Amino acid sequence: MCGFTGFIGKTADMKTDLTNMMDRIIHRGPDSAGEFIEGDAALGFRRLSIIDLETGGQPFHNESNSLVAMVNGEIYNFLELRKELMDKGHVFETASDCEVILHGYEEYGEAILSKLRGMFAFVIWDRINKKLIAGRDMFGIKPLYYGKMKDTFFFGSEIKSFLPHPGFQKAFNQDALLPYLSFQYSVLDETFFKGIFKLPAAHYLVYEKGKVTLQKYWTPDFQSSDRKLEQLVDEIDETIQESILSHRVSEVKVGSFLSSGVDSSYVASVLKPDKTFTVGFSDQNFSEIDNAKLLSDELEIQNNHAVLDADACFGQLENIQYQMDEPHADPSIVPLYFLAELAKKDVTVILSGEGADELFGGYEAYDMTPLMKKYGKIPSIVRRPAGRVASKLPEMRGKQFLMHAGLPVEEWFIGQANIFSETDAKRIVKEPFQHGPSIKQIVTPYYDQVKDKDNLTKKQFLDMNLWLVGDILLKADKMSMAHSLEVRVPFLDKKVMAIAEQVPSKYRITKTETKHAMRLAARKALPEFSAARKKIGFPVPIRNWIREERFYRQIQEYFLSADAADFFNTDEIMLLLNDHYEGKSNNGRKVWTIFTFLIWYKRYFRLEEQVVAHREPMLVGAAN
Predict the structure, then answer these.
(1) What single string gives the DSSP state of each residue in 486-526?
(2) CA distance 134 to 475
(3) Is there a contact between 257 and 353 (Cβ–Cβ < 8 Å)?
């Protein structure tokens, strides 16, 4: 695990500029550094040693030194690929798993991406043809950003690494704010930094002669099998167990995160690490510690846990938003930051349960209530007009029911978070920020790819392309790497995906439970009390915090700031805050989404200017 950064384009002092960029991501790789500078090309690498501790440094070079590569990630089928490539005459410099990408590209070109099993982001510089190739894993587990500004092409694991470069032109992307207020994360390919883009999951890019081209190499393909449930369950269990064991390969200590849910419990029960790690809050119904400890005791594993303090959480909000690179309003990033800090005290690699819900149908939003199912029997000629009328109404009792039961899923489901309606979002922002892409423009390209699928599959497909990569995996990467901790996600594996695609909808969600087939598989490894437990979802008591005087005042200061007035209608956002504080309504998530954006903006567009002006080091994670 590591991070890389770099640029194509001449500067007056290539080495100093690259070093300054690498310093911004030292938290991703505190163990060592590597660089390659030649002509217009500068590639910098920071390493967190996991496999091949002695000789696995980067960059990698091929036999003729015509190619140079840097890789962030882990390749779990590297031994078979390495043998295959050695049989074809390739000579390896190291025992690193990631070196197979370089020789694989040399042998197969971009087709190597379809052969890889793992999580990765990489860049390869072709010294002869002056061409850069960059690729990202099929699920988007590891991040990769890029952008061209004038004659300089930037690429790297984190946006913050671009900031010290003399050619980087920092500008706010006005189109990003409006959709953020609905989705709670940066949902566009172009980031909040104008001109800087995220390479989408399952894509590679080529930069040659000043032009960027993107190509997709994989897409989920849900094709239900007609096999019996028992056969599918056996194969799910066998595949998941094999994936978990493959993901434990390491030369450093490995542990696992553990909540009260079946996903992390399944991982812990198969992995059986020396230690599991859990955090929670003292507020009632906002802690999973007791359930995690119960399972750990059952498995005879030590559970390290911590009760989080609200003051400590607020004290780290600025650093958390800095680490995320873009504003991110998922409240769970806060406990995840502290959970990673806790785990890093004992291990360097952590296995986690992300991805099972998207693959196997685990979210409650994927299901319909019994009342909605009954209502769904009413002819659509009645339900749809009622749903469309409801969609235009302000928030009120019954609105969501009429929309969800009356309208096609494409017209209302945007993922696991839907903070502000488009109408409400436009009402609270100033005019220049009202013209970003609409929700329909964002979701339609994905729904168009699954027109012939059932509603459950449509929801899962959308979540895999937006929510999973833009929220779940991004926060897992950024919060763990802030503490120089590697997180691995064994459910998001090529072989697991192959079996998940075959599970019919009727076995994903039943009348009694979500993720049915996977839960049956988990029961083979788990005690019943863990396999049947409902998902809680890393609860964070933000609605309680905002009603405490000291935190209300802190948020109020941001809402009344000059920055807030530049973006928002102050009266509107103060009404949201005051109504929540006084208990008139529950606006917690809406307030939090605005609040985290303002924290992020202050950090990157106010404090950052002071950092650059005084040549001070940036804030980094607690591990540094």
Answers:
(1) EEE-TTS-HHHHHHHTTS-HHHHS-SS-SSHHHHHHHTTTS
(2) 22
(3) yes
| Residue owning tokens 């594996």 | 493
Catalytic residues: 2
Is the Cα torsion angle 341, 343, 345, 348 positive or negative in sign? Answer: negative
Q: Which residues have a Cβ under 8 Å from the Cβ of 489 and sit 6 or more positions away?
A: 119, 139, 141, 247, 351, 352, 353, 354, 355, 473, 476
R_g over Cα of the chain: 24
| Strand pairing class (254-257; 275-281) | parallel
Which residue from 62, 19, 57, 56 is spatially nearest to 37, judged by alpha carbons? 19
Q: What is the separation, in whole angstroms, between the first and last Cα of the chain?
A: 16
CA dihedral sign of residues 326, 332, 335, 336: negative
pLDDT tens for each residue of 40-83:
999 999 977 665 555 557 899 999 999 999 999 999 999 999 99
Per DSSP (E only), the strands in 197-301 are: 197-198, 203-208, 211-216, 254-257, 275-281
The pLDDT of 479-487, averaged and rounded, is 95
Predicted model pTM: 0.92
Give me the phi and psi of 14, to 5 degrees please. Answer: -60, -45
Residue bearing the bigger pLDDT, 602 or 624: 602
Partners of 261 in the β-ladder: none
Residue type, 343: A
CA distance 2 to 30: 9
Tokens of 468: 């999973």
Q: DSSP string of 320-356? A: HHHHHSS----TTHHHHHHHHHHHHTT-SEEE--TTH
Sequence-distant (≥ 6) Cβ neighbours of residue 9 within 8 angstroms:
40, 150, 151, 152, 153, 167
Main-chain phi, psi angles of 300, to 5 degrees? 60, 45
